[in-house]
Amino acid sequence: MQDYIRAFIAVEINDAIRAGLADVQSILKEANGHVSWVKPQNIHSTLLFLGDLFSDSVSAAANALVQAASACRPLEIEISGIGYFGSPRSPRIIWAGVAGGVTPLIELQNGIVVAALAAGLKPDTKSFKPHFTIGRVRSNRNAAALIRAIETSMAKSFGVLSVNRVVLMRSELSAQGPEYSLLHAAALGRSINFRHPDPLAGRLPG
User: Fold this and answer.
1) DSSP string of 109-147, one letter each residue
2) Which pTM was predicted?
3) Does residue 198 lie in a domain region?
4) CATH number, domain at 100?
5) Which residues are known catalytic residues?
6) Is residue 192 part of a domain?
7) pLDDT for 121-165, tens place per residue?
């Protein structure tokens, strides 16, 4: 039986935007909703969820990432607005939106999907909606208050993010929430190669 890891491809954020999102999380927490808040250091935009990836497919995923990234120029996106997926009575995901640079980001994501499929991977290919998840709602407790708090931040801007690379990440679930570690990074227009140990041997340097 082959070993496997849980993996995804994502866009990272910078420290300034991370601080802004952490601040808005603090405001939303005052609504006392039943929400699992994403640790600020873990906030990212998932471009492609690969799911459970066999260990011998990690190289194929990294190569697909390099291929797609090398064909795309660096881009800028504006992270702006707080919203949610689901209904006002039953919100599911709380997110920060992408207000500028959406088209090139979608083109990058499309290229990654095509490269992953060509590499023989079987990723989740559901419709891509650019966003940065900041919280996952676990129940409807105080949902009305939570929605009101979200509405006060719908027009908030967190700044412009320069996207110069995309990353292949490993996700390990724990009682404290998921822990992420870097498997591979590919700069847009060129590759950044990391020499790393067996991805199943333990946590990688981030």
Assistant:
1) HHHHHHHHHHTT-----PPP--EEEEEEE-S-TTHHHHH
2) 0.88
3) no
4) 3.90.1140.10
5) 44, 131
6) no
7) 998 888 999 999 999 999 999 999 999 999 999 999 999 999 999
